[in-house]
Amino acid sequence: MQAFLSVDDLAIAFPRPDGERETVVDGVSFSVSEGEAVGVVGESGSGKTLSALAAIGLLPVSGRVVGGRIRLAGQDVLAASEETMCSLRGRAVGYLSQETGGALNPVRTVGFQVGEAARLHLGLTRRAAQERVVALLSEVGLEEPLRVARSYPHQLSGGQRQRALLAAALAADPQLLIADEPTSALDTITQARLLGLLAELRARRKLGLLLISHDLGLVARMVERVVVLHAGETVEEAPVAALLAKPAHPFTRQLLTAAHTGEESGGTRGWGGEGRRGGALEWGACRFAPRCPEAMAVCWRARPALEAVGAQHAVRCFLHHSAEEPHA
Ligand SMILES: Nc1ncnc2c1ncn2[C@@H]1O[C@H](COP(=O)(O)OP(=O)(O)OP(=O)(O)O)[C@@H](O)[C@H]1O
Ligand SMILES: [Mg+2]
């Protein structure tokens, strides 16, 4: 079956003040089939948000896709017109952004903002849109949906705002929801409730889900397959059971240990940033080698490819490559 969304060997770069361009993502691959739930896990700065934004054609203006392929709902995203992308956003894919603070307009009512997507994508009249807003707000578990619709964002709690944003993302009945760290700003109980709601919505709407998080434990409970990113590339991709039972990449094993001990990882932003200034994303070595307890000589000489090690299980690591050492 063809994937509903597929991102293949994606590379993204930004211009630097000195005129050179800085590659911040290079080697991200993942896919989501219709109705499937896939998790994208990685430390801060590993490229999760940029990869998701590129997939829906919404990179920050100065960012450029400089390599790879993206297909969404049968369309080539990198070749599609802005008009095509506009119709795909909302209708094919709903996006719940990581920046919850700025995602709602403070001077517009919640109802107006949820209804905007319905009017835009479904061509509903004002009245029909109003009815749809109330239905959506109650579908995402907001009590007194009429009152919520008339409220301004600051009159709602963080959890309520997140539910309202979810209603907006679902307003045009997308087949896939991309949720970028949907619960990281919420307390534990509110977080658990929102995750429960996402699971319910998935079942009821047969909704595909791309769940982005730094928390592997959380993701593993919600999805069928997991993609692990490190320093701008996919390092492992596997069904949840296989990933938990047989994590192949040393970085995945570190993430799992951290999830068991409840430790927060330090994030790659520091390491990645430092490394990148030294050209880490371009150097011909494994990007994880400087942190890897199992690094071998070859890891410093060549960059491993993402290779299959089992059914739907791929890893970017020389420990698992059967081939001869590549030439540096
Ligand atoms: N507008 C930008 N200009 C330049 N570099 C950027 C920009 N946005 C992101 N980056 C860089 O790209 C890398 C990946 O960023 P991204 O936001 O995708 O990370 P992330 O995995 O989503 O992290 P987090 O978990 O903190 O949300 C980071 O190192 C970041 O500094
Ligand atoms: Mg992010």
Name the descriptors.
8-stranded mixed sheet; binds adenosine-5'-triphosphate; 2 domains; alpha/beta; binds magnesium ion; Rossmann fold; 12 helices
Brief write-up:
With 328 residues, the protein is α/β, with parallel strands linked by helices. 37% of the residues lie in helices and 23% in strands.
What would you say this structure looks like, in words?
With 328 residues, the chain is an alpha/beta fold. The chain folds into two domains: 5-92 and 174-282, P-loop containing nucleotide triphosphate hydrolases (Rossmann fold, 3-Layer(aba) Sandwich), CATH 3.40.50.300; 105-172, no CATH class. The chain contains twelve helices and twelve strands. It has helices at 48-55, 82-91, 100-103, 110-122, 126-139, 145-150, 158-170, 188-205, 216-222, 240-245, 250-261, 268-277, and strands spanning 5-15, 21-32, 37-41, 64-72, 75-76, 93-96, 176-180, 208-213, 225-230, 233-239, 307-310, 313-315. The strands form two sheets. An eight-stranded mixed β-sheet has the order 6-7-8-3-9-10-12-11, sandwiched between helices. Strands 2-1-4-5 form a four-stranded antiparallel β-sheet, with helices on one face. Helix 4 (110-122) crosses helix 5 (126-139) and helix 4 (110-122) packs parallel to helix 7 (158-170). It is globular and about 65 Å long. The protein starts with a strand and ends in a 13-residue tail after the last strand. Mean pLDDT is 89; it is low at 266-280. The structure holds adenosine-5'-triphosphate (ATP) and magnesium ion. Magnesium ion binds at residues 48-49, 98, 180.
